[in-house]
């Protein structure tokens, strides 16, 4: 199945960019980042920024943007049956235009990669293709929030996300 990602959910003042690989089927159907009900992304964002799943989607994005957090995907398009990153046909991958994103988001200082597939795709489509684009950024791979990543305990995943995003949380999850 041919899949296409969404535009970045970002304001011009974004300081951190969270990159997934490609939205899964639930997200594509809903036209929302991390729409699968068992994905831990929004529960984590709730704990860190007050942007939890109980809020309407637009309000969650606003909360993230208020903290300088943007959300996007490494891939603009790919072929993948189902939702699993491991099923993405590598030769079908088309990377998003990270250079254009950097031009529009000059305050960017950190990229957090949501899982190993996002990290691999970022290395292939951004770092190797244009290393100067990331030379001044802190790039960190975090445990995937996908329900398919069941091998690591929730608390360990949340701890890694909390440590990576602490500089942007401005103290209170309800802020």
List key phrases describing it:
175 residues; 4-stranded parallel beta sheet; 3-stranded antiparallel beta sheet; Uracil-DNA Glycosylase, subunit E
Would you give an account of this structure?
There is one protein chain. This protein is an alpha/beta fold and 175 residues long. The protein has one domain (2-167): Uracil-DNA Glycosylase, subunit E, CATH 3.40.470. The protein has 6 helices and 7 strands, in the order ββαααβββαβαβα. The strands form 2 sheets. A 4-stranded parallel β-sheet has the order 3-2-6-7. A 3-stranded antiparallel β-sheet has the order 1-4-5, with helices on one face. Helix 5 (116-127) links the parallel strand 6 (110-114) and strand 7 (138-142). The model has no long low-confidence stretch (mean pLDDT 92).
Topology:
Layout lengths: L1 E3 L11 E5 L4 H6 L10 H9 L7 H10 L2 E5 L1 E5 L14 E2 L2 H7 L5 E5 L1 H12 L10 E5 L11 H16 L6
